[in-house]
Design a protein that fits this description.
single chain; five-stranded parallel sheet; 20% helix; 27% strand; raffinose alpha-galactosidase activity; Seed imbibition protein; carbohydrate metabolism; GH; Glycosyl_hydrolases_36
């Protein structure tokens, strides 16, 4: 088994039972696993809600179940071989099958616990970075037995050929993350970058705080889309927390009630973000036992977003924040200064989205305020901003300005003035970097070089270009003199 040199990490798939049908009993060289055929017994609830042809087949033909006292040897020998080939971890799928096989082994909880303890012991021995992604594992036996596994699939699969699945996928992962995100890192699954719903899926994962990966067929890629997610060094701008529904979405059904938009919030180191999605029109059908479109032409919906939708924004902003934000809307490109308590309307058709970046406003002096936005072309623009510091030119404390935005922007200060402060930023990536400044800056520097900038007095949008760094994960030192 050879590793392709430009792949930094490789994971290998296997099922918790080995493969879909388990391990073949008494196979040559595998006799020491004491494998025996076991026949799944499903609960009435599962059978009534989602009968499955695979489970029906296994109930007849059986699954080769490694004896729980020998399953550590099985995992350890499998993982040791993979590690010797340069593999970094495993994606362990079909985990919930074990709950149907507890007869003769002390019941489902006892069997599941034995399998998870063995799995995690083997992971710890063979993959020092805890290289394990758990999948098909939402049975509570599995969730509560997994003590070390850090990443959990939060959703059903991405189904590229099922038009009914895309809105349901986004709403499901958001609500599942509300629970799963308290003790594991939710994984919102892969998607295709060249697909009618690719933007929709990419935007959701950008606010999901989750791993981001695609399962594109080689040669079938939308690189313009991928460039909005991935930096040139291969890193992604992952938000800080698991993406979860905003408080006003917790007790609505944004997939089927016909009136609600789904809002997902997250934070970066210096900003917050709210993704808004129209997920209406499809859902699980109890009659045909599958996800189907129940409304072929769901209406356009209108809602609103505000800074308090980002539940953790006050902590990110710091103790001196007065509640004002600058909002950058990714798709429309609008930059709006939003007073404390104000909201913005949002109108979306089905399978449409918008990403609102809430940037806490820093008051530097009378008539001068500032907020970094980030790389404007990236889905998670604010994910590039690592740090912000304000260095006043004098020892005077900044004066607080309480006026409206139009008065501050219209009170233009002379470009020949002495600098009031230098704003120092640390930021990653490359491309068009945006900030809000109530006054035109005197000077902008990226690294050691002064750079040209553009300034829009009507909105306060300040932009300049950050070059491609030569080092991976490089943090640019940016200085803006106001």
């Amino acid at each position: 088994m050879s590793m392709v040199s430009h792949h930094k990490n490789v994971y290998v798939w296997h099922a918790l039972a080995g493969y879909w049908g388990g391990v073949k009993p008494a196979a040559a060289g595998m006799e020491h696993y004491d494998t025996a055929l076991a026949y799944p017994v499903q609960s009435p609830g599962v059978l009534g809600n989602q009968p499955d042809i695979v489970m029906d087949s296994l109930a007849v033909h059986g699954l080769g179940l490694v004896h729980p006292k020998k399953v550590f040897d099985f995992y350890n020998e499998l993982h040791a071989y993979l590690a010797s080939c340069g593999v970094d971890g495993v994606k362990v799928d079909v985990q919930n099958i074990i709950e149907t096989l507890g007869a003769g082994h002390g019941g489902r909880v006892s069997l599941t616990r034995a399998y998870h303890q063995a799995l995690e012991a083997s992971i710890a021995r063979n993959f020092p970075d805890n290289g394990c992604i758990a999948c098909m594992c939402h049975n509570t036996d599995g969730l509560y037995s997994a003590k070390q596994t850090a990443i959990v699939r939060a959703s059903d699969d991405f189904y590229p050929r099922d038009p009914a699945s895309h809105t349901v996928h986004i709403s499901s992962v958001a609500y599942n993350s509300l629970f799963l995100g308290e003790f594991m890192q939710p994984d919102w699954d892969m998607f295709h970058s060249l697909h009618p719903a690719a933007d929709y899926h990419a935007a959701a994962r950008s606010v999901g705080g989750c791993p981001i990966y695609v399962s594109d067929k080689p040669g079938n890629h939308n690189f313009e889309l991928l460039k909005k997610i991935v930096l040139p060094d291969g890193s992604v701008l992952r938000a800080q927390l698991p993406g979860r529904p905003t408080r006003d979405c917790l007790f609505v059904d944004p997939a089927r009630d016909g009136i609600s938009l789904l809002k997902i919030w997250n934070v970066n180191k210096c900003t917050g973000v709210v993704g808004v999605f129209n997920c209406q029109g499809a859902g699980w059908c109890k009659v045909v036992k599958t996800t189907r479109i129940h409304d072929t032409s769901p209406g356009t919906l209108t809602g609103s977003v505000q800074a308090t939708d980002v539940d953790d924004l006050a902590r990110v902003a710091g103790p001196d924040w007065n509640g004002e934000t600058v909002v950058y809307a990714h798709r429309s490109g609008e930059v709006i200064r939003l007073p404390k308590g104000a909201s913005l309307p949002v109108t979306l058709k089905v399978l449409e989205y918008e990403l609102y970046h809430f940037c806490p406003l820093k008051e530097i002096a009378a008539n001068i305020s500032f907020a970094p936005i980030g790389l404007l072309n990236m889905f998670n623009s604010g994910g590039v901003v690592e740090q912000i510091e304000v260095h006043l030119a004098s020892d005077k404390k900044p004066e607080h300005f309480d006026g409206e935005v139009h008065s501050e922007l219209s009170t233009s200060l002379s470009r020949n003035r002495s600098p009031t402060a230098t704003i120092s930023l640390k930021a990653r990536g490359c491309g068009r970097f945006g900030s809000y400044s109530s006054q035109v800056p005197l000077k902008c520097k990226v690294g050691n070089n002064e750079v040209d900038f553009e300034y829009e007095p009507a909105t306060g949008l300040l932009t300049f270009v950050i070059p491609v760094p030569e080092e991976e994960m490089y943090k640019w030192q940016i200085e803006i003199q106001v």
